[in-house]
From TrEMBL:
Similarity comment: Belongs to the major facilitator superfamily. Phosphate:H(+) symporter (TC 2.A.1.9) family.
GO molecular function: symporter activity
BP-aspect Gene Ontology terms: phosphate ion transport
PANTHER family xrefs: SOLUTE CARRIER FAMILY 22 MEMBER
Name used for this protein in its record: H(+)/Pi cotransporter
UniProt xrefs under InterPro entries: MFS_dom, MFS_sugar_transport-like, MFS_trans_sf, Sugar_transporter_CS
Source organism: Miscanthus lutarioriparius
Pfam families: Sugar_tr (PF00083)
Membrane topology: Multi-pass membrane protein
Subcellular location: Membrane
Key words of the record: Membrane, Phosphate transport, Symport, Transmembrane, Transmembrane helix, Transport
Transmembrane region(s): 21-51, 71-90, 102-121, 127-153, 165-191, 197-216, 333-354, 361-378, 384-402
Length: 505
């Protein structure tokens, strides 16, 4: 541990007023995170068009072409596996070569593979899907890497008073990606009559924000915390801290701040297990349990919208593939505007006021009550699908306010700088495992008429989802509150003397 008897320069970073470099870091981290999310949330529209374009011949007379279940599973599995690998690999890489360099590699991968996805080729439908799977896997690797890297960059730049809001704002770009991906789809569908060009253009548009974030990243230096605490380059750290603090920092001051930091033990050591083992288990478990519930509804969205009349239930009769995509994009954009984005905005507002743990517990609690209500009144909802979707939307609104945001924030704050990206990557990869279970473990059951029974899942599945939310709430109790506390204190790297915040203003 480092015990200093002067104003610690690392603490000064936590107490600094919000300045241009804070906003620049938020913009760059947010743009990169947006680029990865765009490619994930535009896929439901792409899959619909792939079925119409390449599998129309295999459909029964009078029915539209649909992407076969095995092809959809392969495409989803490719990107999920890629994200799992990317979260672990780039998490480790961010702690080895630096956040800035690793983030550049991840963004370059997203940009290249977004463009390449739109150029997927093949003589047969299966060949096109196979090529797309290849590019989607590597796209997932880059997008997965954005989770630990964008979180670590923002956490290490932000001051402690607004750190939660900055991190939540980065994650809120996920909501903006849903909105913009559907806006792009509507514009492209209006401009292009050919369905094969539409899905390719939607995917290739994802390269634009990734390339922009890559360019902007070159203008941002490595985080001063990584440079000082991990790389040990005190001269560069002093220069970087001077920019953030708008004051002249000498190398000797940095040396006084980091002298004596215990940096010998690693992830698989007894010391880590004693200090942070429970934290890693709790953050990873909560993220896993949240994503089981959160992503269980994605595969049901189109059918719910069809039952509400927002999109056609028989598109082959009433509209073309491009028109159906346009209508579905409008419906999803409306859902994002009414649910996802307000939820993220409320999280940004409350996270540094109420704290991470209270928001996470409250979110899991509302989700639990919503699922139990839906399950208890299951027979009633079969004939009132609008009420079902309204209550289901309440659950996911509070998920965005609470655990869907806080599970991203907490792992970026609890662990030492030398292991921050690695541990965040492990927690995020655990969440990705929950995504797989939620997306593939709760498929709606079809009856003999080909319709989904009761519109969504079964009563037992809703009870199971309520149970996962209860477990998530329990695991949250083992996650320490991180609000307004210095990163080095939370990670037990440095102990600061009590210093009045006004000393750095």
């Amino acid at each position: 541990m480092a015990h200093t008897h002067q104003l610690n320069i690392l603490a000064a970073l936590d107490r600094a007023k919000t300045r241009r470099y804070h906003l620049a870091a938020a913009a760059i981290a947010g743009t990169g995170f947006f680029a990865g999310a765009y490619n994930l949330y535009s896929v439901i529209l792409v899959y619909m068009l792939l079925g119409r374009v390449y599998f129309a011949d295999s459909a029964r007379p009078g029915e539209p072409g649909m992407l076969p279940p095995d092809a959809a599973a392969a495409l989803n599995g490719a990107v999920f596996c890629g994200m799992f690998v990317g979260q672990l690999a780039f998490g480790w890489l961010g702690d080895r070569i630096g956040r800035r360099r690793a983030y550049g590699l991840a963004l370059a991968l997203v940009a290249v593979c977004s463009a390449a996805s739109g150029l997927s080729f093949g003589r047969t439908a299966k060949a096109v899907v196979a090529t797309l799977c290849f590019f989607r896997f590597w796209l997932g690797v880059g997008a997965g890497g954005g989770y630990p890297l964008s979180a670590a960059i923002m956490a290490e730049y932000a001051n402690r008073r607004k750190r939660g809001a900055f991190l939540a704002a980065v994650y809120a770009m996920q909501g903006m990606s849903i909105l913009l991906s559907n806006a792009v789809a509507m514009v492209v569908a209006a401009a292009m009559p050919e369905a094969d060009y539409v899905w390719r253009t939607i995917l290739m548009a994802g390269a634009v924000p990734a390339a922009l974030a890559f360019y902007l990243r070159m203008k941002l230096p490595e985080t001063a915390r990584y440079t000082a605490l991990v790389a040990g380059d005190l001269r560069s750290a002093a220069t970087d801290m001077s920019l953030v603090l708008c004051a002249t920092i000498r190398e000797q001051e940095i040396d006084a701040s980091v002298r004596g930091v215990d940096d010998k033990w690693g992830l698989f050591s007894v010391q880590f297990l004693r200090s942070h083992g429970l934290h890693l288990l709790a953050t990873s478990s909560a993220w896993f349990l949240l994503d089981v519930t959160y992503y269980s509804q994605n595969i049901l969205q189109k059918d719910l919208l069809g039952k509400l009349g927002w999109v056609s239930h028989s598109p082959v009769v009433t509209m073309s593939a491009v028109e159906e995509v346009s209508r579905l994009a409008r419906a999803q954009a409306l859902i994002a505007l009414c649910g996802a984005i307000p939820g993220y905005c409320l999280a940004i507002t409350l996270i540094d006021v109420l704290g991470r743990r209270q928001l996470q517990v409250a979110g899991f609690l509302v989700m639990t009550l919503s699922m139990l209500t839906l399950a208890a009144l299951y027979e009633h909802w079969t004939s009132h699908i609008a009420g079902f979707m309204a209550l289901y939307s309440v659950a996911f609104f509070f998920a965005n306010v609470g655990p869907n945001t806080t599970t991203f924030v907490a792992p970026a704050e609890l662990f030492p700088a030398r292991l921050r990206c690695t541990c965040h990557g492990i927690a995020a990869a655990s969440g990705r495992a929950g995504v797989v279970l939620g997306a593939f473990g709760f498929f709606p059951k079809k009856g003999a008429d080909g319709e989904y029974a009761a519109g969504i899942g079964t009563r037992n599945e809703l009870f199971v989802l309520a149970g996962t939310n209860i477990l998530g709430m329990l695991m949250t109790l083992f996650v320490p509150e991180t609000r307004a506390t210095s990163l080095e204190v939370l990670s037990k790297e440095v102990i600061y003397e009590a210093v009045d915040d006004a000393a750095c203003n």
